[in-house]
Design goal:
The protein is mainly α. The protein has helices at about 10-30, 35-60, 65-70, 75-80, 90-110, 130-165, 170-175, 190-210, and strands at about 1-5, 175-180. The protein contains 8 helices and 2 strands; from the N terminus they run βαααααααβα. The N and C termini lie far apart (about 95 Å). The relative contact order is 0.17.
Amino acid sequence: MYRFRVWDLPTRIFHWALVACVIGSFVSVKIGGNAMVWHGRFGLTVVGLLAFRLVWGFIGSTYARFAQFVRGPRAIKDYLQGRWQGEGHNPLGALSVLAMLGTLLLLVATGLFANDDIAFEGPLYALVGKAFSDRMAGIHRLIEPLTILLVLAHLAAIAFYVRVRKETLIMPMITGEKVGAGETAKGGGIAALCVALAVGLAAVYGASGAWLPDPPPVVPASGTAPDF
């Protein structure tokens, strides 16, 4: 048993930044009004974070890669029966990770086109009609309780590991290190980080609608009285 690196710094920053943005998005939408500006900003940040994580899941360090922790039904069965051994995400936890990433992707994708009929329009609202935007807004609202449910399940899993298995999952995600018999994570160097960051920034730019042309100027109504 020795101390080894399990979570690289980019993965840890992604994790805690995502936590902060999800909390910020939930709080801002409940406040409403002017806070919806921040709701949109948090949403765009989540877009960039998710794009980064998807790329990092292929070119990041050992335990951040999808190929390392996404397993089939047999691995899940072995884990449930206590035969699985490994570091990083376990086979059952991998399903939770995929569910969270997929749900958040759908959440932000619908939010880009949604509106609240009051003070908020998604940054890509101009690309679609009002009817389509309303449907996206409805789906967006439906996904919110599912997201909360997944977060609660994640917290319950952390509590289970602490209380039953006497193992903390939080500290390794803070320090990056864990005590065990695993091998130190490899890969995910500077070049890979630059690629993932570039994709994340490009995703934010695309989702922000900054590339859309400016709307045509509004022609004021004439106030001249008609001649008789």
